Each structure stands twice: as C-alpha cells, then as structure tokens.
User: Fold these one by one.
Assistant:
Number 1:
Amino acid sequence: MKKEIMTTSSLLIGMLFLANSSSGIGGDNIDFLKTCAELKHKYAIEQMEQQKYYNYYSLTSNDYLSTNIAKYDSQVSRMKEITEDETIVFMSAMQNFADEQVELEPTFQKALNRFGEITGTLMPSRKRF
Amino acid sequence: MENCPNAETPDNVRSNLAEQLISALPSYLSPENKTRLFADLMDQFPDSTNPNKVYLDLESSNLFQGDCLIDIPFHFILPETGVTTHYCDGIILSNSCDCSQENITVESKNIVFSKIYVLKDYLNLLRSYPEITDEKIKTFLVNLKSNKISNLFFLPELNKSPSLIFPESFVRFDETSFLPSSIISKYNYNYKSTTEFGDRLFSLSQYGFYLLVYKLSLHFCRFREGIERYS
C-alpha cells in the first residue's frame, strides 16, 4: 500500500512541475516519456493526454528535466511524508481499535453465563428437523 | 502552479489519501460502492448503532455470513442437569461461500452460528446484581456499542414500521453452535416482515459485514499473541 501511495503522490506532484512548463524547449521527448512510464500510473498518463495545455511534448531538454526531477524528488519525499503520516493516522485508528479491545468484567461475564442458561426457548417455533 | 489542477492543497492530500484507502477495500466492489463503504467507515467505524448503516435486505435465496436466523439450537452444560438445548436467534459465522446453495459441496458442510442475546433482558439481569452499579452498566454500554468488548458484537434495533423485527441485541462470539447445511435448507430464507413469515431477521450491509469480519478477526485471530512458539 505504501508503494502505491508513493506512486500516486509522485505522479500528482510530478504534474505540478509539468504544469509550469508551458514554454517550448524542443528536442526529443524520450526521457520524459520514459519518466512517465516509470511512474506507471494510469491517472497521470490520462491527465497528460488530456491536458495539452501544458505542452508536455516540449519537455525534452535534459537540463530542464534534471532540474525538474530534482525538484520532483524533493516534493515526492515531502508528499510521501505527508501521505504516510495521514495513512498512519488512519491505520492507527484501526490498530487502536484492536488494542482497545477489553474483556468483559468477571461479574458481567458471570451474569452473561447465567443469562445463557435462561434465555431462549426449549422448543423451536416450528418443527424443521 | 496556479493553473495546476493537482496542486498540493490539503483537500488534494486528503483526496489522494481517500483514493489510496479506497484501493485497499474489497476489490469486487464497484468504484462507487467502494466510495460508499469508505465514507461509512470514516463516518461510523467502529460503531454499529445505526440500523440504516448496519442492515440490508439482500433479496436473495442464499444465506450470507452475518445473516440472522431464528430457532437455532444452542447447547450448554450444567453439572446438575447435563446438556440442555435452547432455541435462540443466531448469526451466521460461516463464510458466505459455505452457505451458498450453488456450492456443490455444501451438503457436506456445517453452518456455524453465534448466539444472540437481547440487550434489554441482559440489563435487567445485571441490575439484580448488587455489586453491579449503574455507573458500571453505563461504562459497559459505551464499550458494547462501540464494539470494544472482545467477545461481543453490538446489533441495533431493527424496525419495519410498524413492527419491531429485532430488538437491540449483541452477539456472543464465544458461544457457538452448528447445523448441517441440509437442515439449514429447511429454514425459510424470507425476511421476517410485517406481512410475510420468514426465518431470516436480517442481513448485514457492506459496512455491517466489514465490521463483523473485523471483529471476528480480532476475537479469533491474534497474530500478536505474545507467545514464542520455538523450542
């Protein structure tokens, strides 16, 4: 799950930088596409295809990419930290629930055992077997 | 950055988190139902006090894990009288596949039930114990309704206007019984209602089922048992 969170966050953050790059840079786009492929996230790919506004295919300068990737990495780390924190909060709630399980007090248990002896009926409401 | 629809705002972070958590929910659910279950979990977990969130008539000829049937025989032993059988409401602990009529091996399987107790009657009994104070009962109720008592699972009242179908109750996981599926097939799987006779009182909703299974796992399966099983 952690890995998946990292991927989603990475892509979303990656999109932030792409959004700033509307100016054309020129050159091949293989590095960029490769980066996208490595991200392996359908949502981001769809977004890229849809949002021609950001002119992704011009993001081909290695210098430009490396700068962005450095920024991207730092943002990913930050986002990873945030999402992990949030996830920990949620998972902690589940775990706390497990940890907070208590046993029934002995007197209540004794009463419940007694209750078991007197609850119910000696015959079913109709014969089935 | 201003033009970016995916800017890192708190809302987006929460949205992303929600997306991730949804992906961890049962894969057979449609995206829409995953979202609904997720919303219920965030809103209700771990309470089972809202009947609209816990129960659902599934309108199926099959039984499911978490279904409640009437007239299930439960046995107990007393030194004076030996084995005695009482008939009570029981909730199905067996998984839904084992209950399915479509399962060709179902004839050879047993269906396991846990006993259901009516809360009001239990409270009346508790009040007859001098050492049990009102304060203790209050604490017990809070713990029961938030499902914090290990062997108990709270079930809210179920009304189908104008009739009370099922009173506030709780399941006791450590009191079980079983019946062969061939016997269970003689029960009437219709839901009990004001107009129709049926042996099934309720089925659980997606949220109710999720909660039941989580509670079952906490009660019966503890990986962190604290015992080193090596010589």
Note: The first strand of chain B starts at residue 68 and ends at 78.
Number 2:
Amino acid sequence: MITNRRLGLAAIAAALTLPAFAAQAAPPTIGYIYVGPEKDFGYNTSMDVGRQFVQKNLPGTKTLHVENIPETAEVEKVMERMIRSGARIIFATSYGYLDYAISLGKKYPKVAFLHAGGLKTGANVGTYWANSDDAMYLAGMAAGAVSKSGKLGFIGAFPIPQVVRSINAFTLGAQSVNPQVTTTVVWTGGWLLPPKEAEAANSLIDAGIDVIGGQVDSPMTYAQTAEKRGVHVVGKDVDVSHLAPKAVLTGASWNWGPMMLKLVKEIEAGTWKPSHVRGDMKDGTVVLDKFGPAVPEAARKTILAKKEEILANKFKVWAGPLTTQDGKPLLAAGAPMPMEQLESMQFFVKGVIGTVK
Amino acid sequence: MSRSAVRDALRGLLLFLVLASTFFLLIGRDPVSMFGAILTAAAGSGYAVGESLVRATPILLCALATLVPARLGLISVGAEGQLYAGAIAGTGVMIAWAGPPPLLLPAVVLGGMAGGALWALLPALLRNAAGVNETISTLMLNFVAALAVTWLVYGAWKNPQSQGWPATVEFPDIARLPTLGDSRVHAGLLIALAAAVLLAWLLGRTRWGLGLDVLCSNPRLDSVTSLSLARQVLLTMAVGGTLAGLAGIAEASVVQGRLQSDLAQGAGLSGFLVAWLAGNRVGRTVWIALGVGALLASGDGLQMSERVPSSVTLVVQGLLFVAALGAAAHRDRGTRHV
Amino acid sequence: MSSVDIVLAGLLVSALRSAAPLLLALLGECLTQRVGRINLGLEGQMLVGAVAGYATVAATGSPWLGLAGGAVAGALLSTVFGWLTVAAGANAFASGLAVWMLGLGLSAYLGTAFVGVRIEGFPLWIGGLTPTVALALVLVPLTALWLFRTRSGLRWRAVGESEHSARALGIVPWRVALSGIVVGGLFSGLGGAALSIDITRTWAEGMTAGRGLVAVGLVIVARWNPWLCLPAALLFGLGEALALRLQAADSAVAAHLLHMLPYAVSLLVFTLTCASLRRDPRSGGAPAGLRAVFER
C-alpha cells in the first residue's frame, strides 16, 4: 500500500504539466451507478464487486454508489449530484446511460466518465467492456459435449446485440462438438423477472432441452430451476456453482475490478485518454468458471485446449464459415466479422430456434 | 386551509416522523441525520429544487387526472396508462410529422393529450355500456399501455441507429417543450399549475363543478343538475386523460428525449395517492404532489450521503402515505370514500 | 418435437405451477372482499411473505416453516391495512396502495441479505407438481366449504352484505372485517412464500410483478366464489405459460404481444363478467357491502 502511494505521488510530480486530467493529490471520489439492485447476484453485483476492489486497492478512495437508477434522464440527475458531491470519476455501468454520460460530459469537462459497453466516446468520456463471447463459446462446447438430447436452451431478457452475441457464440461452441445441436431462445421481456425465468426454464426443459444458458440480470433463478429439474446449466455474470452444484457445467463470469483499478490509476496519473477499453479472458476481465462434475475429463481437455488457442490468438470465434438462421452463408471460411456487424448483431446463426424481434 | 385541515396535516406529519424515526433506528441509522439528508437532497440547493420540481410535475398532472373523475365518484387508477398512451400518441406524431416545422411542437403536445384522453375514454365507455368497474379496468389497462410501449420501442419504432438498444429516435429540439434556464424544469409544470388553477375554479365555483358534487352523492339527481351521468363519466375521464397524456408526452419529449420503457416511473400511482390524500381538493393536491416529488427526487441523494439502499426511500414514501392516511381520515366522510 | 407438442407438453402443470401462488392470494382476497373490504395492498403482502418465507427456509432449512413464516409476515402487514381502513376509516384504495408501497420497500430492504442465497425447497413430485400446488388446490374446497357451510362463514358473509343488519344479529362488524383482512394477509403471504420457496427458489426485490394487483381484479372474475377462484387463477397461469411456450415453439407472434396476453385475457373476462353482473346483479354474488363500489 505504501508503495502504491509513493508511486502515486511520483506520478503526480511527473504529471503536473499535463492539462485536463492533471493528477490530483488527494484520493479521488468515484461514483458508481447501477441500473438494478446492487445485490442482485448478477450483473450489478459484478460491477459492485469491482467497486469494492478499487476501494480496497486505492486506500483513502471514497466511492459513492447508487442503485436502481433507470436508463432515463434520472441518471443524468444522479451523475450531476455525484459530481456536486465531489466525484471526479463516474462509472456508468449500464448501456442505456451512454447518451446521458456524453451530454453531461460536455457540461463537466474535468470529470472522467467511464461507460460500460458503449460505442461512442467524448473528450472526457470513455467506455469499458469485456468480450464474453469467447467464454460463451467455450461454455457452449461444454454444453454440446454434455447434452444428451442435443437441444440447448437460452433465456434472454431482450434481443439486444450483447445477448444475441452470447446466444450465437454459445451455439457455435456447442456445434463444434456436436454439429446437430439446436438452441431454443425464449425472451422474458425484463432484466429481473424470476417467476418468468423459472417458467421459461421449465417450459424449455419440458420441451426436451437439457442444458440451459441465459443472459438476464441474474442467473440464479434459472440455475436453481435447472438444479431442481435435474438438467444442466451454464452460468453468466457470476459463478453459479454454489447454487447449482450438480447442474453447473461452467459459465462466463465478470471480474471488473482490475480493469476499473487500471482506469482509475490512469485517470489519476493523468495518462488516461478516452477510448474503447475492451477486456477479455486473457487479461482476466472475463473468467471461464471452473467445471462442474458433469463435464467429462475428455471434454475438459478439449475445451481447455481451445481456450489456449483463443488466448494465443490462433482461433477466432467470429470468423467464417458462418451461416445464418435461414441457411444463407454470411462469412466465408476464415473471413473475420467486421466490427460494426459484430457490435450491432441482430441475427441468429443456423441452429438457433427463435426470433430476434 | 381550515383549522381542522391544519390539525390533520400536523397530526399526519407527527405520525410520519414517529414512524420514520422508528424505522431509521431499527436499521441502525440516526433519524436526525436521515431527515436532514432527505431535506438537503430534496431542496438543499437551487439545483435540487429544480430536480424536485421535474419529478413532481408528472405526479401533479396524474394527481389532477385522478381528481377530476373522483369528483364524480369515479375511482380511476388509470393515470399511468394514460400517461403512456399520451407518450405513444405524441411520439407517433413526431415520427410521422410531415407538416411545417413550427407546428410540430403544438401537434406533438395535442397528440399527447389526445392519446391520454382516448385511453381514459375506453374504461369510461366500458363503464357506461357494460357496467365495468373503472378501478379494475384502468388498473389492467395500465399494464397493457406499458407493455405497448415496450412492444413499440423494441419493434416498429426502434431507432435503427441505436444498435439494437430499445428506444425511439430522439425528439428534435423544436418538438420539445421549453425548459427553464439550465435546469430540466419544463413548461409542463406551468401548464400543470395553470390547469390546477383552472380546475379549482371550474370544480368549486361553476355550475358544472357543483353539479358533479351533486351527481356524486346521488346519481339519480341528474335531472336537477341537467347533467347526464353517462356524459359526465366520459367528460371527467377524458379531462383526466388529457392531463395525464400531457405528462406522458412531456416526459418523453423533454425529460427523456425519446420514448422508452418505464417512462412513468410510478407517477400514475403516486398521483393517485396524492389526490386521495388531498381529499380530491385541488389546492392540497398541488402541495402534496410537490412534497412527494421532492421526496422521490431525494432518493438517490439519500443513497449517496447516508449509504442506504434504494428501498429505504420506498419505505419512507410508504410510511408517509400510511401516516397521512391514518391521521387525516377522520375528516371528509363523504361518498367519495369507499 | 413438433410445435404443438412443445406448447402442450406440461402446459397444464406449468399453468398450475404459475397459478398456485396467485390462487392462494386470490382466495385470501376473496375472503377479504366477502367481508366487504377491498385490499390493493395484496401485492405488498405477497412480497413480504416471499422474503420472510425465503429467509425462514434459509435459516431453518424447512420449506414448511418457510411457508408458515411467509403467511405470518403477510398477516402482519395486512394489519396496517386493517388499522387504516377499519380503525381510521381511510379510503380503501389509497390505503391498499400505501400498504403495497410499504411492503415493496420493506421486502426489498430485508431481502438484500438473501439474494443469491441457496435454499433447498420442496422435493419435486411426479408430473412436476409440488406441495404448494397441492396446498393451493386443497385450500379451494376448504375455503368454499367454510364460507358457505359454517356458521362463522355465514357471519362473515352477513357482514359483507350489510354491517347494519349484522350488528342487529349481534355480530361485531369491525372484528369480522379485521379478521377478513388478516386472513387475507395470511393467504397472500403464503402465496408469496410459495412463489419464492417453490416456484423460483430465489428472492429478488419486487418479484411478484403485479400478481397481487391482478388478484384483486380476478376476485370479481371469480364472482367472489372460492370455487371459481381456481379457474380464474388458472386462466392467468395459462396465459403466462402459453406466452413462454409459444416462444419456445418458435411462433411468429412477437414476444412483447405475448407478454400482454395474461392481462388482456383477464381484462376481457373481467369486462364480460361486469357486463353480465350489471344485467343481473343478484346472480353475481357480489357482497352488497361492495356493491356500492362495483355497481354504481
């Protein structure tokens, strides 16, 4: 800790000549805004865990955290109040906060805004996100290996690109093990609707599906349902192994802390330049959860080998050959997917049952 | 205000302070600093006051939307649905507008009012034609309207530039109600206050308003008042719907800048509570709406300064209504009660 | 599996499961309305029941104790409604909404410690049914028989018809009204606990998502008759189950329209019920005490 402070002070001394984000002497006040409950055992909790990591590793830092702020102009008011309370850095942790972050960024040029998952930046607004598609691909491999019926299910909240990408990656991974698998998609229409999630899981299971994945606010409900019904589950955002010890295969969890800490340090040191920071499995922002008991040894070896390939940049999930849901070829073998198509994905790959509407 | 009204208000306030303090102590917080934090967050600066007013505006409009039919004895909880309907209608006008630009703003606002009025006429017609109880029908229609918004922003009206994220295109500046200076306080507040003044006069001083009172206590006296019950049901609901629809299009166009889900943020139901707490009197409705708006606007500030979860504000709001209802209930035992 | 198969597979069981918590709350509100009171705070009571039940199971490991804990919590919150409407004479709708708000906030606050906590619920029986479904189904005839065949049931109905006449018979109306409210609280708390302990096995704030509010309307659809509460609840449950299963079967109907289905269907049936009630009020079975509200 003392070492950090010394380094910090040295950085301050060195950075005194830099404009705009001239390093500060006192530890910063950092604001965090969550779209749902802080303790939701899912997405928001993962962001809050990141906040606690930053707080622990930057002693003296004060963090302000506010939960249940909808993606409306309300967030602008909250951010402004945080800034008036002394916040110098704001983590806007939900996608729908982007436009408000940018407009408020213009009003407060000395404050740094960090937005989760956005595709626009400003003079003092940067974005941070992590690619969980690779981990979902690997999780899909586990699903494909374990599924006896060859039918997978996926419970999503809304057909937004991030969820669509997870579904496609999951399916592609499963198909690499068993080319015949299908993934049936059900939309719940909300980020946190446990009764609907339970019912969706049950109806998928009744239709013969034996591995369920999902992307809603929290995986806890469908994980519990899978465990109760004796099928398997792949987690998202947080590790569900304590909730579904027999059912869990693996999952794609977040580990935002180190990335957040790095950004805060850069801002404080004055070296930060607003950009799209993207993490992945390599830098540890995305974690492939440990395997559950149902994943056979052979499958584990294959999956881990593929993981190494991905980490070494030898394998790309989003490269051809890729066929869309209606059978049309989208990418030729080896061709990479263009960035815009990736970030705004609104189509399903072949083998996915369901609509994006 | 009459002396008994002041007594009731003080009794309610005292009860609220006791209940809220008990709750704060139970969760391990100092009541004085909590109340202080709420007050500071709600009104501790010009900025805070502005935000409280922004929050209070749709609540006031929805409270008035509840109040007008209530004078006839109708118990409508439909302001929230009418708000959404107004937002949908106004947004539709904005999207489809092909006329001259200077007329866009009035067209959007009128569209919003019309949408709200139509959504209110539906339960009114059902009541007249089939005796459908308006409380339950408006309650259910609220769900339908909210879901309709979701359906539109994910489907037909989704902004193609939003990369799959659900929201409509933004309202152009010329289609937004003017705001006050640097804050987000908008002309909707002025319209709400003007409407309140107008309604207070109409309901309290004109033959129409007094006729409503008579009809409320005995529907068979329509010959005396020369008002037809069925027609007044439609009229009062439509007036209410117009106001709620205005709240909706104001929220969509100027506060949010676009149509999106969860636009209302509970303004409809808060408005209902405010109206009934105020005994459906216009003057008191205004004050209570401002107070409730301030309390709700202070929520995030309370989270920040006192480090409590957002549910604490919800509990405080519930305790406020419980205290106000419990203390003030002994007056006004007219037929507007159930 | 063909599309039809997917939709039908386990549809009835799924509808029953979806309907069981609602049915419990519905029975409770039916009794409350039978004594002439209408409680919109049902939603708040279900929520406190859900969190209390979940916490009890987490602490004791027994799902049955959890159900009991939920019922008690619902009853406790309902006493607030009882105080407001019976003792203080406040407006019933406003009081109900205030209680709902209070329940929503309190349950969210108390529940934060239990999000993501694992509980062992009831074991699954064959066919996917669970003890809570059985409990709800058993309570239907028990409630109906109690209401229509016992002396205390008769007293309650008398109060619902006319407090004035009931007083003449030596009944103390406010005591009966309060009992009706508290029993409603017991049932709705039980329903909430059934939802969190059995259906989802998780707790999240606001998880009842409007079920309590819908229950208040469905009582009218059920014509204040506990027997009819079962088909009324099933109707809603069916709407929910269908909406999800049609998606799983890859139907072309937009998901959002399907989500409107349960509410739209309930509204339709409600409208038809009111229409026929108006034609012949006597046949509806509405307690006269409520008639002032529903048949002006």
Note: The first helix of chain A runs from residue 2 to 15.
